[in-house]
Amino acid sequence: MHARAAALLAAAALLAPWASGQETAGTGKIAGVVGPPGKALKVGAVERIPATLMKLSDKTHWGKVDPKTGEFAIEGLAPGKYDMAIESAEGRLEGVVLYVLGEENEPAYDLNAGTGELKVRHFDEKPYIEEGQVLPPEERDKLIRRVLRIDKLVESIKNTLSVARFMDTNRALYIHGTAKHAVALMELARKQTFYAEQGDQVIWRIETWPYQWMGDVWHKPNKGLRVWQRLRIPAAEFNRMGYAYLPELGGVPVAAGKTTKFDFTLPAKFPASLGKAPGETYDKPAAKEEAPAE
Fold first, then answer.
1. If residue 239 lies in a helix (H) or strand (E), which one and from where to where?
2. According to the model, what pLDDT value does residue 5 have?
3. Angle at 109 (CA atoms; ends 105, 113), nearest 5 degrees
4. What CA–CA distance (Å, rounded) separates 277 from 10?
5. Non-local CB neighbours of 290 within 8 Å, separated by 6+ positions
6. Domain CATH for 78
7. Given pLDDT bands bounded at 50, 70 and 90, which one contains residue 253?
8. What is d(CA 149, CA 214) in angstroms, rounded to the nearest whole number?
9. d(CA 206, CA 147)
10. Whether pLDDT at 289 is above 50
11. Are 113 and 154 in contact (CB under 8 A)?
12. Residue 169 counted as domain residue
């Protein structure tokens, strides 16, 4: 009798965390609301795992979503930081963490390369203007770009992309940095035929490129490049795909036995400047003419 009671108590102890909604020992949870209600089909947390040369090993832990309210919960997460992933009818939005050395103590900026939107923190213009002078927004923007060497970095990236390469459709999506270090979120695609037997396929990659100010130029080190996504898919599937990266969805912390609150409102329009927008067309190259028989 006592043995049976002990077994029942042990079973109850194992079920208790699940029944009460609490996390089991050693794991945490991310919970919150994604709005507008009913728009998010799936909500997950991406565990970033160091990639091998030819394979990405990141793992997405999908949670449960209430389609009526947009409330979600992702349970059983090991302590650490995760990038959120949200899928809707338009496509997937995924977090990304952009960080550079020393940014905590220096003026830092975020530039949406597609829209031109610039955000800056810890920047004091007083050392660069006359006492009592007030700069209009346009002049302050020019000053920030000059002092933090933003336009020079944009030009350096353009020069790099102007060199012929296997990936034929490339652009900078987002740049985060200081006057000394920067990292650029890049979209690279190969849309031209690359294999005769698979000519209707597209290669699509998302990478981050590091930059360092050396002397009087921005230098792109050989080390430090990171691949965040690598796809090779049929052109028709690529045309339908929506996949964008948002820094505000990145780096969500999880602690053992704790619930991290995370709320997010999906943009009214898919952020095409930060990735691949659904419906973006792929023009299949014309077939090569066969040489006449001799």
1. helix 235-240
2. 46
3. 160
4. 52
5. none
6. 2.60.40.1120
7. very high
8. 12
9. 29
10. no
11. yes
12. yes
Find where tokens 């920047």 sit: 123
Global confidence as pTM: 0.84
pLDDT higher than 70, residue 3: no
Residue 276 inside a domain? The answer is no
109-165 pLDDT, tens digit each: 999 999 999 999 999 999 999 988 989 999 999 999 999 999 999 999 999 999 878
**Does 147 lie in the same domain as 42?**
no
Tokens of 41: 């089909």
CA atoms of 155 and 151, how far apart (whole Å): 6
Please state the φ and ψ torsions of residue 102, each to the nearest 5 degrees: 80, 10
For the segment 12-39, the average pLDDT, to the nearest whole number, is 70
d(CA 85, CA 119): 24
CA atoms of 210 and 218, how far apart (whole Å)? 10
Residues 6+ apart with CB under 8 A from 249: 83, 84, 85, 86, 93, 94, 95, 96, 264
Which pLDDT score is estimated for 260? Answer: 98
Are 120 and 232 contained in the same domain? Answer: yes
Q: Which domain holds residue 52?
A: 1-95+250-269
Signed CA dihedral, 248, 249, 255, 257: sign only: positive
- 82 in the same domain as 43: yes
Number of domains in the chain: 2
Do residues 150 and 29 both lie within one domain? no
Alpha-carbon span 240 to 49, nearest angstrom: 28
